[in-house]
Write a structure and sequence with these properties.
This protein is mostly helical and 107 residues long. Helix content is 54%, strand content 0%. The protein has one domain: Butyryl-Coa Dehydrogenase, subunit A, domain 1 (Orthogonal Bundle), CATH 1.10.540.
Length: 107
């Protein structure tokens, strides 16, 4: 991605997500795939780094990261463990919506 510069807080976030991808997601990727399990250690590391709120607007308590930053973070995770990258850039379900209504395919 060329032509844009991330603000300092986004660069810090990307650097931390890249570290988590390299050190945590990569180390568990084989067992996540083999055992078809949730990448809990990666999600825990992302939670510890406060990276799970990157797509949530600041006005709602999140980090309000740019779409470019979210995409770069998902790329970094996905290059080490695709299961860890899934959903990192998604917003939470709309207020009042059930979780299943946001994740189940429409009929």
């Amino acid at each position: 991605m060329t032509g844009s510069a991330l603000v300092e807080s986004e660069q810090v976030l990307l650097t931390e997500v890249r570290r988590i991808a390299d050190e945590v997601a990569a180390a568990s990727a084989e067992s996540v795939d083999r055992d078809a399990r949730f990448p809990s250690e990666t999600i825990d590391a992302l939670r510890g780094a406060r990276a799970l709120g990157m797509a949530i607007p600041e006005s709602m308590g999140g980090d309000g990261a740019s779409l470019e930053t979210i995409a770069r973070c998902c790329f970094e995770l996905g290059r080490r463990c695709s299961s860890s990258a899934g959903g990192r850039g998604r917003s939470p379900p709309p207020t009042g919506a059930s979780r299943s209504s946001c994740t189940s395919p429409s009929r």
